[in-house]
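Thread title: Can someone regenerate the structure for this chain?

I was given the following input by a collaborator and told the matching structure tokens would be attached. They weren't. Posting the sequence so someone can regenerate them.
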Amino acid sequence: MAHWADLAAAEISTTGNTTQIVLTFPTGLVAEMDQDGNGQLSEAEFHLNHTALTPYFLETIQLSDIQGQRPTVVIAPVDTANVPPDLSIAPGTHSTAKLTYTWKETPRAITIDYNLFLPEVSTASYLATILQDGNTQTFVFTPENRTLVLEAEGASFWAQVWSFIVLGIAHILTGYDHLLFLLALLALGGSFDYLFKVVNAFTIAHSVTLTLATLDIISLPPRLIESVIALSIAYVAAENLWRKREKAERWRWALTFAFGLIHGMGFAGILQEMAIPESNLVISLVSFNIGVELGQLAFMSVAFSILALFKRFSWDKGIRYGASLTAVAAGMYWFVQRAFLG
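Best answer:
Regenerated them for you:
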């Protein structure tokens, strides 16, 4: 499940020899500067810690041009009433600052190296909305994708696409509940053709609801979505334990399709929280979905190969039984946690 606490967002604009970044970032990154402990840096706290904030941002957000020119930077607080809608502050977790970079000469191309991530948080990401010559572009910085080159006409189309593909791959590979659901499907066994049919049903279903949820055409409470995802893991894994494989295989593609519809709304959470500009929503959505599919395919290929290898051994059935039993326990634990304790 995506959480605002993992995310940062910014608007980047360049005019002449000035680059401005309006950045909403997790206050926890500079928690020692939040003297009143309310989770947001006030104007007074910005000024009080100015000598520490300036080198911190210079170190974590580095700008340079193709000639190696480095700008000076001025850090200032932003009145929360004037924060753009897509940078709206999450109460008690984020602060907003305006970083104004001044170049000695107008840069021909700007390289941004972004390293302002919560430490050891694999799901951390930073959505940059780039405003240039009346055009709007989007780019996602992640721990795996930290660098963006801004030419005179802005970021390249493929840089934007690739950033959301990387985000999709990272999202599925860190979505342990989704991966456990896929593993439970594979643990039943069966031919490659059968598993291909089942996985395709899951892919089609979650692609549909991922799209519809991101476009705000459908909506369900996050608690309900995450609870049903947990139940889907427990149910599919439990079927592996008590139902004969021939009977389970007959309708599993339909069951997988139904559960895939719910998983798709879970995938959509991070895109919904990012508040991506409408002009870039379609390409961002398609790219993110491609990334999810690539990550899913990579996981499925590895898992299928390992399970196929186990078939050579007499304890293959015990391994599959143990994996299914573990998935049941994990699914029920997550269900109780999400439905009643979250």
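The mean pLDDT is 86.
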